[in-house]
């Protein structure tokens, strides 16, 4: 499982109005038809979006995301007369792996309650541009995109989503977003980071302790 996100470049707004949101949803549908990756949840915000994806095989996530972001960027630029005016996104999409247990539920809850946390709606299901809303309406065009979760969804999921997460839970997900580190139990994170060459995401940020002393002694020996 992966939490995938991307953000608009500079001060651009990806979604200025309902038409922009719907345009992205159409591209999401087309991308899924080309690469039918399992989608567990999503949320579109004004200048960024989140997806939680469950690929079946190596390369599927990259293929899906490459087509989605490239196609959306091209269509957005044509629609907003912005062809040749630089990049729409800050860069390549970000992604980090998630352990298939309660940590997955923590990330999905974080993603689906984004508009509540931002103060845009009081209840997550009222935000039209996310999986929490779509899941309540089986006739919704995007409902077929929703895959069954590998970790059972709590029966009172809406109540769970609309309840604030703990500071520790939010910090864990935000740090994963910033650093691209795996989210899970400590042993799983260590194994996954090693297997995917993500060891750098686990190291403390900033200069190593004692770096000034070592640099000074090194300079004297030169």
Outline the structure in words.
The protein is α+β, with helices and mostly antiparallel strands. It has a single domain (2-165), classed as 2-Layer Sandwich (Alpha-Beta Plaits), CATH 3.30.70. The protein is built from nine helices and four strands. The chain has helices at 18-34, 60-79, 102-112, 114-117, 131-134, 157-161, 167-179, 186-195, 211-221; strands at 2-7, 38-44, 48-54, 94-97. Strands 2-3-1-4 form a four-stranded antiparallel sheet, with helices on one face. It is globular, with a radius of gyration of 20 Å. The N and C termini lie far apart (49 Å). Residues 214-222 have low confidence and may be disordered.
Identify the CATH architecture.
2-Layer Sandwich
Biggest sheet character: 4 strands, antiparallel
Strand % is: 5-15%
Structural class: alpha+beta
- N→C terminal distance: 49 Å
The CATH superfamily is known as: Transposase IS200-like
Enter the CATH topology name.
Answer: Alpha-Beta Plaits
User: Considering DSSP H and I runs of 4 or more, what fraction of the residues is helical?
Assistant: 40-55%
What is the count of β-strands? Answer: 4
Fold topology:
Blueprint: E1 2-7, H1 18-34, E2 38-44, E3 48-54, H2 60-79, E4 94-97, H3 102-112, H4 114-117, H5 131-134, H6 157-161, H7 167-179, H8 186-195, H9 211-221
Antiparallel strand pairs: 1-3, 1-4, 2-3
Helix pairs in contact: 1-2
């Amino acid at each position: 499982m992966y939490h995938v996100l991307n953000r608009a470049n500079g001060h651009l707004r990806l979604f200025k109005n309902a038409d922009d949101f719907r345009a992205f949803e159409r591209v999401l549908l087309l991308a899924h038809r080309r690469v039918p990756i399992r989608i567990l949840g999503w949320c579109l915000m004004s200048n960024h979006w989140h997806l939680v994806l469950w690929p079946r095989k190596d390369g599927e996530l990259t293929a899906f995301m490459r087509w989605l972001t490239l196609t959306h960027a091209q269509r957005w630029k044509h629609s907003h007369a912005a062809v040749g005016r630089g990049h729409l996104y800050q860069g390549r999409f970000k992604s980090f792996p998630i352990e298939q247990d309660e940590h997955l539920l923590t990330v999905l809850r974080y993603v689906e309650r984004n508009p509540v946390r931002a103060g845009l709606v009081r209840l997550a299901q009222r935000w039209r541009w996310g999986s929490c809303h779509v899941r309540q309406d089986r006739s919704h065009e995007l409902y077929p995109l929703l895959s069954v979760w590998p970790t059972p969804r709590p029966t009172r999921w809406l109540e769970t989503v609309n309840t604030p997460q703990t500071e520790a839970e939010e910090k864990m997900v935000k740090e994963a977003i910033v650093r691209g580190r795996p989210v899970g139990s400590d042993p799983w994170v260590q194994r996954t980071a090693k297997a995917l060459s993500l060891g750098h995401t686990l190291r403390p940020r900033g200069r190593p302790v004692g770096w000034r002393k070592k640099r000074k002694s090194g300079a004297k020996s030169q």
